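hiii so um. not sure if this is the right channel but i have a protein structure encoded as tokens and i wanna go backwards to a sequence. like what aa goes where. can anyone help
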């Protein structure tokens, strides 16, 4: 069986599910989802002013999974959390971490230390009965062999409101472009030293690039701080603000119904830009995801056009 610890926000949860689903298909084994982790508990104490994220995969068409008993799940998440902490300082040694991951995965322990340094690590096939996944798995390489299944299952299944239905119909009838500004917790002193906030210039250059390659684009602005965007960002093109107060998964559904994308360094918009199968899709992405790990490239896809997120 495949046990996966699910934590952090929606985008990270989708990566965690996708890797677990890929392994479940590889081994033909069921998935057990644990939503109570030592990592989550640690973050709630270390970052008390940062809102903790709730489990959101129940809004998606995922394969039937067993939900882990929360007390057992919390206890079982302690060893991989300790492992992650102990190996934090070694994350930049790619050769050593690759070797370590192969050894650990042979024992059924798929442990990955940190979001900012999470590259792709090939796992070792094993006959171990229980495979435990604890990490963030920020690369399509973990599941690209099962791309069609993953894309089908990571669609929102909640009933559409009439308002959102009309918006999606409009998006599908034009050259719609989702533009995603990530602010929120990126502004926190806990994270802003490493989590880069893309400049206004980055978004303008991305929108300009799409306008040069797409006929009559319609730009839809998404953000976790939409009022700030309205007040402070002066766009060169006409835009439509997505400000109807949707929950996160509903904004996510609106985003993945667009045809083109200007994304931030956010797993939320990474996934929204990944799901559409539009062969003419243009995806603008920041050329580095983290300030201190600019050489980490596994999060990028071949369909992305990279622009410097610091340039004005």
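sure thing!! here u go:
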């Amino acid at each position: 069986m495949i046990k996966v610890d699910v934590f952090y926000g929606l985008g990270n949860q989708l990566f965690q599910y996708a890797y677990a689903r890929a392994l479940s298909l590889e081994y033909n084994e069921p998935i057990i989802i644990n939503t109570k982790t030592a990592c989550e508990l640690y973050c709630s104490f270390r970052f008390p002013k940062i809102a903790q994220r709730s489990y959101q995969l129940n809004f998606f068409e995922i394969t039937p999974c067993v939900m882990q008993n929360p007390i057992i799940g919390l206890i079982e998440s302690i060893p991989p959390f300790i492992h992650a902490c102990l190996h934090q300082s070694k994350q930049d040694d790619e050769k050593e971490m690759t070797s370590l991951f192969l050894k650990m995965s042979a024992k059924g322990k798929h442990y990955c230390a940190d979001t900012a340094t999470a590259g792709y690590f090939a796992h070792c096939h094993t006959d171990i009965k229980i495979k435990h996944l604890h990490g963030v798995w920020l690369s399509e390489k973990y599941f690209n062999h099962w791309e069609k299944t993953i894309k089908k299952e990571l669609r929102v299944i909640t009933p559409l409101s009439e308002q959102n239905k009309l918006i999606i119909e409009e998006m599908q009838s034009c050259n719609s472009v989702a533009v995603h500004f990530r602010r929120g917790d990126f502004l926190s002193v806990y994270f802003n030293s490493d989590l880069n906030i893309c400049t206004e210039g980055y978004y303008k250059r991305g929108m300009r690039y799409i306008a040069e390659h797409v006929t009559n684009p319609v730009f839809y602005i998404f953000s976790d701080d939409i009022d700030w965007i309205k007040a402070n960002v002066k766009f060169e093109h006409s835009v439509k603000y997505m400000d109807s107060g949707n929950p996160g998964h509903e904004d996510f559904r609106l985003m993945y119904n667009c045809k083109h994308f200007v994304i931030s360094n956010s797993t939320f918009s990474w996934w929204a830009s990944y799901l559409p199968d539009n062969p003419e899709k243009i995806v603008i992405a920041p050329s580095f995801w983290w300030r201190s790990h600019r050489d980490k490239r596994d999060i990028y896809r071949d369909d992305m056009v990279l622009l410097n997120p610091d340039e004005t």
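oh and The chain has two domains: 2-152, 159-307.
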